[in-house]
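Escalation from tier 1.

The customer reports that the assembly of two entities below gives different structure tokens on two consecutive runs. Tier 1 could not reproduce it. I'm attaching the input and our single run for tier 2 to review.
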Amino acid sequence: MLEINNLTCGYDARFSLTDINIKIKENEFLGIIGPNGSGKTTLFRAITKIIHPRNGGIFLDGIDLDEIDFKGLARKLAVVSQNFDIDMMMSVEEFVLLGRIPYRQRIQLFESKDDGKIVNEAMVLTDTLEFRKRLMGSLSGGERQLVYIARALAQKPKLLLLDEPTNQLDIAHQVKIMDLIKRLNKERNITVVIVLHDLNLASEYCDRLVLINNGRVHKIGSPCEVLTYQTIEEVYKTVVLVKENPLSKKPYVFLVSEGKGGAK
Amino acid sequence: MNKKIYTWIVWILILAIILLGVSIISLLVGSAGIPFKNIISLLFAGRGTTEYSIIFDIRLPRIILGFAVGSALALSGAILQGMFRNPLVEPYTLGISGGAALGVCLNIILGLSRKLGVLSLPVFGFIGAGLVILLLYWLTTSRGIIRLQSLLLTGVMISFISSSLVMFTMAVASAADLQGIIFWMMGSLDGSDRVLIKLMVIISFFGLVVSCLFSTELNAMSIGEEDAAHLGINVEKIKKWLFLISSLLTGCAVSVTGSIGFIGLVVPHLMRFFVGRDYRILLPASFLAGGIFLILCDTLARTVISPLELPVGVITGIIGGSLFIYLLSGKRNKYA
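Tier 1 run:
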């Protein structure tokens, strides 16, 4: 579905990402993890064509992203970013309707009936229909994140890209958001690429993880393969304890504070 | 969704009716008051009379120009505010008017309008406005992202530099050119060339049609440039188009009537308060309201100390500035 081949890119002369190779399969739930400044968001921005490759390329369904225009890309790929600097006086419904922009013709000023139907469906799926008249500025962090996902769904994407969607949310909202994304992945066959800081959420929900460090892919594999204490210690330079979650059988990372012993 | 469109149509109708009312009042009042019932008879049988001449040769062209310039400035303000996502941005605060003024002054002192014709004035105004926008864009953009914090300050500085350069051109201008510059700088809708009026009307409507085609993009840009790109908007390309339209509108407006401030700032604000923030209605509403506002201000400028006349910029500044302070202080939380 999405293939990143020998990608090197970054800002100015400095390369933030070097020689990245990742193949994302259809219907996969892929997590991107790594320390702060490792290049996760740069990779995210490269996939969304905000920054351009210096070397290598990114291919969506076999077509080079450079050959796909912004509109064409937005019909296949939707993004849930961390940008909250939006017009807070916009209503939730108006915000979700923005997701239909990729389908609007140049001289089409008004939404079609289909747009209304699709937006409604996206809001039902994300449980946001009840506050469709509220202003974006009046929403809590969790509600706002659901609305962002609704807008992305209104784009009818095949691939959903999310940049730390659980950031600053309480555990109940984290689980609600991640369960929703998992459901969309399983029931709607949407391929998911998600940047996560929380290693345990990544372990619990992702089929595969890509661990990025210093702008390079450090390891790719299942959560069991990637989330070992040696790897985490090496990349994050901190002591952790990794055990198996008794319910999901996935790795669970425990933090170890200073003076409480080494890694086990 | 249909309800939204009906509401928008109602707003457009309300503004159109107000525009008609204000235009009729402006036709009738002035140093020579003319009763409303006389207009119809003058229209059919009044050719050659003084009243006919006052209404159709002096006041009507002035109203038409007032509408075209007011709507162009308000539209330009609405576009720039949307593009920069900053409610304080307008052609005046960004120095675009200053650039246009400098272009016109250079044209006058170089004697180009005499050689190239009166149409070279808006062309130079447009070039001046365009150069300021490009300079502003270049100075405040890094990695394709406009640094809003430095934007206004840079705009204000460019505005100061332009004013200083305008003063420089005045210092070196000949007596005849100086008179031309001062007359133009006071800002007036009086005595403009018919060709310029027609051109201004065409440019205003052209600006409205083209900018409305970008209303979806402006709506998308209200959630940030990067997120707009995620929605399939080619942000850099759109910004260039919007820059071009707003400098065309401002440059022409300023070069025809002189610097008239506050319309581009206040009118879009006021309209946002009434019709909402969707650019599909905000652009046409600002367009109509800008026209109404300038016709109204010009009528006041003609009548307040009649038979003498005030520069219209004085009235737009006083009314616009007071209105803006009121909006900022009292109503800010409702719409800003």
